[in-house]
Input
Amino acid sequence: MIFLIKYAEIAIKGKNRKYFEDALVRQIRHNLRHLECEFDIKKTQGRIYVNVSDDVTEEEVTERLTKVFGIVGICPVEMFEDEGEKELGRQVVDYIGRTYPDRHFTFKVSARRARKNYPLNSMEINAFLGGELLEAYPEMKVDVHDPEVEIFVEIREQICVYSRQIPGPGGMPVGTSGKAMLLLSGGIDSPVAGYMCAKRGCKIDAVYFHAPPYTSERAKRKVIDLAAQVSQYTGPIYLHVVNFTDIQMEIYKTCPHDQLTIIMRRYMMKIAEHFAYETESMGLVTGESIGQVASQTMQSLMCTNEVCTMPVYRPLIGLDKTEIIDRAKAIGTFETSILPYEDCCTIFVAKHPVTKPTLKSIKKSEEKLKGRIEELYQTALDTTEVLIVSPNGVRTPKAPEKDSE
Ligand code: ATP
Ligand code: MG
Output
């Protein structure tokens, strides 16, 4: 089986082109490597072809390729040697016969002659092949303006024929932008936020704030499962699991309860940023969206944001919950996200959280934490566990590499 990989040309002008294409090839290789098959990726004349042995089905391959950012379309193609136009006609008729058992559709042939020494020009090839097809299958009808099936014929060293295109996810190959640190909770939003940044080419690391015994091992497992699902698109994710219990307890004991979530969130951002700097990330990513809950009003976001020096990316900022849910379903994280395990924020949440906090009042409350919080903060950093999560499982950085990036 051979697939022609289509990618958007727009982001890849000039010198960036090779960089972009190499990254795309790398990500394709990465996503196909655990299929039980042989495969080969060729980059020729500004095109990428993936040749896969018949040990797997077309669906198994496209399922992997639709998770590679940068791909706009996946076209199953047939390659023929140039044995003259008669033979080409026979092969195209044969191809259409095999590909479409029901041929009651309108079509057009779009030929492209990349090799100028071919005896017919593009228009002549279109006319010739159109005629051959109508003769073989009288049920087909020509419609050059809005055909149901467009049959592409590209004359290169070999002749490449295709007519189907499976949509890819678009975006840019992971690794062509920098790396970002995702605050990944067990909810619906943050996995989608991570997906969206990765779609723009960011490599993703993650941090999860765990509060045992208030949050269970199952809650942690759920976050690992979500990271594994997101990693189908992003490649392995270094997940930092921070034990947040003591910091939360201290805030709970010391600060006004209506400010708990904001103050907690500020500590989360600080810790996430610490690991982001340590691992050379260039920004933080959260699943926040304006006005979704009390901690996501503009006033609250301003207070949360104030502790960060890095950019904080909030790719869901303008989406409604229903739109986020649709995306979570489309990327496959929704079912895991709605499993009913507790989250560290819900446990310590106040009945009536402030919706319009001021920085001044938040900072005043935080003053009271001084003297004790510094040690707890340091302990949280020191005891953080790092897991490398990929679709094939979880390992620790010390374990031997089974799944290199
Ligand atoms: P989500 O569905 O992503 O949990 P949410 O609507 O529940 O979002 P909040 O709980 O207010 O929203 O969290 C806002 C953002 O803060 C999350 O999207 C996530 O990026 C981050 N966050 C919240 N809780 C945690 C946690 N326990 N660990 C890591 N990040 C968290
Ligand atoms: Mg949440």
